[in-house]
What we know:
Elements: E1 2-7, E2 11-12, E3 18-19, H1 25-34, H2 36-40, E4 55-60, H3 80-91, E5 97-98, H4 107-117
Parallel strand pairs: 1-5
Antiparallel strand pairs: 1-4, 2-3
Amino acid sequence: MGIIGRKQKPKIDSEGNILGLSPNWQKTYQLWKNNPQAKEEKRLIYNTNEETSGIRYKCKWINNKIMIANKSYYSFRLTMTNKRILAKVIQTGKEFLVEKPKLRVNMEILKQIRNESK
């Protein structure tokens, strides 16, 4: 088991929707309560994770090196209390392992590079 972080890369699609950030429902409902126009337009307030420099953490159970029969049937899930404790620890400044982003190759650019080299 480990706590792994991943740097968020928010994007805006062609319709103006924000992708890659999770909504902050508590603040969104508060906005909708105070501003009915925002509720009609379905405006959302997003978590930017500024206290962790834009890194979103999750708890992951790595079971590929464990010798257990039928391990694919087992799962690990934190309780709400443990999630809150973990959130407080992260917000106080404790840092955990951060995954490096996976390299995604744009095939069209790769073809252009190959054609230029010929």
